Amino acid sequence: xxxxxLLSHVRRAIDDYSMIEENDKIAIxxxxxxxxxxxxxxxxxxxxxxxxxxxxxxxxxxxxxxxFDTTPAEKICNELEVPYTxxxxxxxxxxxxxxxxxxPCSLCSKMRKGSLNDELVNLNCNKVALGHNKDDVxxxxxxxxxxxxxxxxxxxxxxxxxxxxxxxxxxxxxxxxDIKDFIASNGIQTVKNPxxxxxxxxxxTMKQFIYAQNETxxxxxxxxxxxxxxxxxxxxxxx
Length: 239
What we know:
This protein is α/β, with parallel strands linked by helices. Helices cover about 50% and strands about 15% of the residues. The protein has a 6-stranded mixed sheet with strand order 3-2-1-4-6-5, sandwiched between helices. The longest helix is centred in the middle third of the chain and has 19 residues, at about 105-120.
């Protein structure tokens, strides 16, 4: 996947859902994985020609795991001249050692978002760009359906009124395989994820389920995404 194609997907999502306004200060939620790094690069290049001016600031929330090295993320931020902040927390210890959560992802996600949002306020950012891709939209839809018994997925744009912060998801039109190709073809080094449950989550199970459906039903995930896009699920509309 070329940078030009990535930018095309990102700009279309931003324009379709009015994700950026003049003089926004946007934080990139930078985990250091393939999605957030692709998002960072796309947003920086978009900043150079997008008609509405906006600022960028990358933020990584460290969960306190041993071996979590943010050097690759810091290197890319320096190259792109994007200010970078690492928020150090003990979330990993709380979730896995103190609470000993059997299903740790939900609590970890809530605590991580809380730390990220607090830093957004400190930096006077009014928006945060998150690296959810097209596959994530479909996976979250089925996770909600199977585990919660409801039809739902995250919105392209969400608003947290307690913090006066908007979350935007500019990668929602980009398939995960294209992001993997972009990262690999450009030789981009990602940050190693030391989470003890990485690859063994409900999301991973749902990802494998969707892969299997694609083998049986042609373009299964694409058709589900189109249905979500044209549905009355909160935040989505037929555009």
